[in-house]
Amino acid sequence: MSANSFFVNLDQIFVLLRNWLVGFLPSALRPAAGVLLGVIAIVCVFPGLFALTTVFERKGLGRMQNRLGPNRVGPYGLFQPVADGIKSLTKEDIVPLSANAAVHFLAPLALVVTVFMGFAVLPMGRNMVLVDMDAGLLFFFAMGAATELSVFMAGWSSRNKYSLLGAMRAVAQMISYEVVLLLSSVAVVMITGSLSLPKIVAAQDQYSGIFPHWYIFTPWGLAGFVMYAIAATAETNRSPFDLPEGESELVAGYHTEYSGFKFALFFLGEYLAMFSISGLGTTLFLGGWSAPLSFLQFIPSWIWFFGKVMTSIFVFIWVRGTLPRLRQDQLMNFAWKFVLPYTLLNLMVTALWRFMGEGWQRWVVCTIILAGAYIVMGRLGMRGEHFGRRSYRHAE
Amino acid sequence: MLGDGILKGMAETARNFFGSYVSKERLTTVEYPEQRIPTVENARVFPFLVYDGADWLGGMRCVACQICEKECPPKCIYIEKSADKKPDFVGKPQFYPARFDIDISVCMSCQICVEVCPFEAIKMDTQFELATDDRFAGLLEDREKLAKSNEYYHSIHPTEATEVDARLAEEKAKVEAKAKAAAEAAAAKAAAASAAVAQSPAPPAAPPAKTEGGS
Question: How far is CA A39 from its chain centroid?
Fold first, then answer.
């Protein structure tokens, strides 16, 4: 076996493994069994990543605050998720007496199931997509929108003022930022001409010299990616947009009345949503599973995909360690007065990019429009704001 | 410009993140069960009973006067007076506690018992690792468990213990001086009486001098 075919096989190892396993079955069962194996892989890999991410997040946040983070369970605290899992499994499952039991029970399930569905259309490596749907992006957003429903189910059915306030905030926030999330992805669809995620990755898996054709390396792609990242942070209720569960004012927001394993499911659902939205961002703007430099293509595609996803997760953690929580009005103003208009402008610029054709002119024009708009809108948005020492009318 | 504050903040957290792996001064965490910082001298947790010498019951300073029991705001001290007496540090016979319990689940570490004790018998301990799986009997400390030597007291609160020792020594010296003076007076009286006996042939018998007491 030559080195080249070794790397090709390593790249396709999961596909080959699945084909080999499915080969033992009669041919009528093979497609269903193949899908089932893919589902099992997704259901095992992402919760495993979730477990690792919780401990790395706590250690990372600790380091950002000059603390040690968890280091008691196992070497370097790596078995902390095991302890957490056992704890959440053995805890009492409390359902409030006045809660709507059925909806209260279904909410965490609805969250986890819909979040898992999103992974079905993500290409996690060359030929590694569970369902190669023509409208994969649309399906992904449909599933993403369904998570809002489960959040509201949880808040409403708990019959608790904090839960309901948290759910209201979550719905207001998620709907506002869902628009941005969609519109920033539309730019990619406009350029690629396809809603199929494997096709979007394939369009970026080309190289000029050693540099890849990732969309983030274009003016509209960079702007779109920044807007996508902001919207994704809000969509997954991560800090600084974690108002729905703002523990300083709402106990724990919509999952106040959840305990034991149901709470763990919410926790899992939130992290899985983070993985899937990072996976989509990777697919749309960061070239999916393609290598960052042409001579690195021998490294298996799935390593690149998961490496990019985990890097995005690290940025999520980094942002969480840096920024304080926004106020509800700041959140809404930011969404509707800055992010949404800028994303709409980005759509126009993308169209301009598409119709100006090849050449250096479109780089200059698009960059000037986007950078100018960013500066002007930032200035206008911050006009009247005064940053400095805060004065308290009654307290001083 | 919009967003430069965020970038500055993220640079700061990144500096912390990497710096905490490099410089030891950044990490102020004391990993408690393995690493400990010594308690400061004024630290106080729950009271204990001081005894002098080697025998905890014989040397116990407490005379079961029950002032602390009465003064204790949450009423966590239980004392029973003994039937017999034992000599205290100056040799005067005193009662001692037949039972002296402190319920440390009730104690609020206010130190009032220490302040009211006229015998320097109850002091504050610095022992804070008192976790137990029996929340009733395990947190009710009896006199044997409460009794700790004066040397231990010196080891946890050296300044305070030295002052207490000086005060007790002064008191003891005063008592001894008084006893000596009384003894001398009695001896002089006896001498005078014997002289009188020598002078007058038949005087009434001299009253016996009280010298064995301390007062």
Answer: 19
Query: Of A269, A255, A231, whose CA–CA distance to A115 is shortest?
Result: A269
Q: How far apart are CA A173 and CA A154, in angstroms?
A: 16
Determine, yes or no, domain membership for A175: yes
Q: For A138-165, write each residue's pLDDT tens digit.
A: 999 988 888 888 888 888 888 888 888 8
Least confident of A130-144, A332-346, A378-392: A378-392
Averaged pLDDT, A245-261? 81
Give the range among A129-133, A222-226, B9-13, B119-123 with minimum mean pLDDT. A129-133
Residue A285 and residue A318 share a domain: yes
Domain boundary (A90, A122, A157) is at: A90
- If asked whether residues A59 and A158 sit together in one domain, one would say no
Are A247 and A236 contained in the same domain? yes
Shared domain check, A145 and A107? yes
Q: How many CB pairs under 8 A join A and B?
A: 48
Residue A158 and residue A242 in one domain:
yes
Residue A309 has which token pair? 């996803």
Q: Which residues of A touch B7 (CB under 8 A)?
A: none
Domain that holds residue A118: 92-379
Assembly ipTM: 0.77
Residue of B6, B12, B29 lying closest to A67 (CB–CB): B29
State pLDDT tens for residues B133-169: 988 888 888 888 888 888 899 888 888 889 998 988 8
User: For all residues of chain B together, what is the average pLDDT?
Assistant: 85
Q: Report the C-alpha dihedral over residues A262, A266, A268, A271, rounded to 10 degrees.
A: -170
Give me the residue from B1, B6, B17 closest to A60, CB to CB: B17
Residue A396 lies inside a defined structural domain of this protein: no
Does the pLDDT at position B91 exceed 80? no
Closest CA to A147 of A315, A280, A266, A233: A266
Residues A237 and A356 in one domain: yes
Chain A segment 22-81 residues within 8 A of B by beta carbon are 60, 63-68, 71
Q: Is residue A394 part of a domain?
A: no
DSSP-assigned letters across all residues of A322-369: HPPPPPHHHHHHIIIIIIHHHHHHHHHHHHHHHHH-SSHHHHHHHHHH
Out of A63, A374, A378, the one facing B16 most closely (by C-beta) is A63
- Judged by CB atoms closer than 8 Å, whether chains meet at B27 and A66 is answered as yes
- CB contact under 8 Å between B21 and A63, yes or no, is yes
Is A85 near chain B, with CB under 8 Å? no
**Contact residues, chain B, for A377 at CB < 8 Å:** 2
Give the end of a domain, one of A69, A90, A111.
A90
Question: In chain A, how many domains are there?
Answer: 2
Q: Is residue A392 part of a domain?
A: no
DSSP class of B110: -
